TrEMBL record:
It holds the Pfam family MFS_1. Residues 10-26 have a biased composition (Low complexity). One of its GO terms (molecular function) is transmembrane transporter activity. Residues 45-541 form the Major facilitator superfamily (MFS) profile domain. Residues 1-28, 543-574 are annotated as: Disordered. It is a multi-pass membrane protein. This is Major facilitator superfamily (MFS) profile domain-containing protein. Keywords: Membrane, Transmembrane, Transmembrane helix, Transport.
């Protein structure tokens, strides 16, 4: 007798175009994409992501503002002046204050890889809902904190919200953007970072000075709560490189009550063992399961062979220690996660891009936190929050959008992205360095604005490289690792280190010049990327050969006929 025949979806002796019951897990019998009449059009989805991103970074700007962060108490000539804001109430040193700004990294570091890996098996919008719920509760608790340690713990949990969102939002936007405007859409999303910081400066200054710093956190929690709830009720969307989230559920419904009802969960576990390298293919085929081809049972005698396989499992379980399905699944997912991380770390384009991003973010992170205080000290700006907020919001929006549209205009390629990254960072860094040499407040503001305009032009290109230098199934992990790296090696250490330098030299101008000079190594690293061999892998199949998820570039939220869609190498199940 010949080998077992594969049963493909929509093929059971006829060529009917209607979806038919399938025994293959991961095969989509009906697209989970939203109908074209749904409220969630691509542009509205982009708008939702932009507002969430804006609120996330508004919180960062608010805690850095003079109105919320405040200042230390001072004593001169026998006259003491009490401190203000968080720093004054909790009597924090500049180093402790800098640590407070970086505490969110703990939650981000722990949660980012977890959320990126779970995106393969859980509806991503549910993950975003969970993360934003944690963010909302943590921000609310910040307003009730009573000392340095309590507010630090709350800030750690804030990082969980960003972890669930930032690694998944960008791939969704990249999938749904029109082909000729992908970088522009990413620019629109990432312009919310400088805009959020800037609005946060202004928001924190106004709310903190009029109502107290605690109210700033409470209002943020109220603003984010609708989006946290929305994550639990949004219909799932199909992410490029993965099978629909409910494909496994559909499989169970289709096979319920049929002759193949006897299929045991151990069969599924065996496939996971194979995928994680735990059992050789020949051993699986010896059992007649047909793994590797995607078929679970012999098409000619599905019931008998399945029952035989099931009985063999039971017999074997009496002689060998058994592992639970949960433990096996965790082991398999962890093994795949390590393989994916290894693949990313061996990608020279990805590594060079992230290294440059780390150095760049070291400066940007310290700017965002210490900028208002440095401006107040160097130029005696009475309204430093408003001044830095205004410059950042205007230049951040224009720069981010300009960088995205420029890259689309000259042709969105990885090589062109590196050229734009190196040039914009070099010239922008030079302008910012020269700005801090000015003695005049107006001269500083003018040149610093030009520098920020150029520096923020990097936001869309750097993330474009992260998304397109890897295959689709690795994009969430690519964004997660990039986000973790730029924070843990970039803005997390930069804020306390700059605070430490300032505590030693007591000169904000010198401190700012030292910090700004770090832009130049970032430009040099990205310049190296121009000469690397790079391939845009956006349309490359996911990691298992022959697997893909068909999508359109211009209308990805429209329901498609996926009756003949091949099996995806990655399956999503709730």
């Amino acid at each position: 007798m010949g080998p077992p025949q594969e049963q493909h979806e929509g093929q059971s002796g006829s060529s009917s175009s209607q979806p038919q019951p399938s025994l293959e897990p991961g095969v989509d019998t009906k697209s989970t994409m939203i109908l074209s009449t749904s409220w969630f059009t691509p542009k509205r989805l982009l708008a939702i992501f932009c507002v969430i991103n804006l609120l996330n970074y508004l919180d960062r700007g608010a805690i850095a503002s003079n109105g919320v962060n405040g200042s230390q108490g001072t004593c001169k000539g026998g006259t003491c002046k009490s401190g203000t804001g968080i720093q004054g109430d909790f009597k924090l040193s500049n180093f402790e204050d800098g640590v407070l700004s970086s505490a969110f990294m703990v939650g981000l570091l722990v949660a980012s890889p977890i959320f990126a890996s779970l995106a393969k098996s859980v509806n991503p919008f549910r993950l975003i809902g969970v993360g934003l719920s944690v963010w909302t509760l943590a921000t609310l608790c910040c307003g009730f904190s009573f000392n340095f340690w309590s507010i630090s713990a709350c800030r750690m949990l804030v990082g969980v919200g960003e972890a669930s969102f930032i690694s998944l939002a960008a791939p969704f936007i990249d999938d749904n953007a029109p082909l000729s405007q992908k970088t522009a859409w990413l620019a629109t999303f990432y312009m919310c970072i400088p805009a959020g910081y800037a609005v946060g400066y202004i928001y924190g200054g106004l709310v903190g000075s009029h109502f107290g710093w605690r109210w700033a956190f409470w209002v943020e929690a109220v603003l984010m709560s609708p989006f946290a709830i929305l994550g639990f009720f949004m219909k799932p969307l199909q992410l490029k490189g993965f099978a629909p989230a409910d494909s496994e559920k559909k499989l169970k419904l289709e096979t319920a009550g049929s002759e193949t009802e006897g299929i045991d969960d151990n069969v599924v576990v065996m496939e996971q063992i194979y995928l994680s390298g735990g059992l050789p293919m020949r051993e699986l085929r010896r059992k007649g399961a047909g793994f590797g081809s995607g078929a679970y049972v012999n098409a000619s005698n599905g019931k008998d062979e399945t029952l035989s396989l099931k009985a063999e499992f039971r017999d074997k379980s009496t002689h060998e220690p058994s592992r639970s399905k949960c433990a096996t699944t965790i082991y398999g997912q962890f093994s795949i996660f390590l393989q994916d991380v290894k693949e990313l770390l061996l990608d020279k384009v990805f590594v060079v891009n992230v290294l440059g991003y780390i150095v760049y973010n070291f400066v940007i992170g310290a700017y965002s936190y210490w900028g208002p205080k440095a401006g107040y000290s160097i130029y005696n700006m009475a309204n430093a929050d408003m001044m830095f907020g205004g410059i950042t919001v205007v230049c951040g929006i224009l720069g981010s959008l300009g960088g995205g549209f420029l890259l689309d205009f000259v042709n969105s390629t990885i090589s062109n992205a590196f050229k734009l990254l190196s040039f914009a960072t070099l010239t922008g860094g030079a302008c910012c360095f020269g700005a801090f040499l000015f003695r005049s407040e107006y001269g500083f503001c003018a040149l610093f604005a030009v520098g920020e305009l150029l520096v923020f032009a990097t936001q869309a290109p750097v993330n474009y490289v992260c998304l397109h230098c890897v295959k689709p199934s690795l994009r969430p992990l690519s964004m997660a690792l990039s986000t973790v790296a730029i924070h843990i090696f970039g803005d997390v250490p930069s804020s306390p280190l700059v605070g430490k330098v300032q505590d030693k030299i007591h000169n904000w101008r010198t401190t700012a010049l030292i910090l700004t000079s770090i832009f130049f190594p970032a430009a040099a690293i990205w310049f190296i990327g121009i000469f690397l061999h790079s391939v845009d892998r956006y349309n490359e199949d996911s990691e298992h050969e022959g697997s893909s998820v068909e999508r359109t570039n211009t209308a990805p939220l429209v329901e498609e006929n996926t009756a003949k869609t091949p099996i995806s190498g990655q399956t999503q199940e709730c």
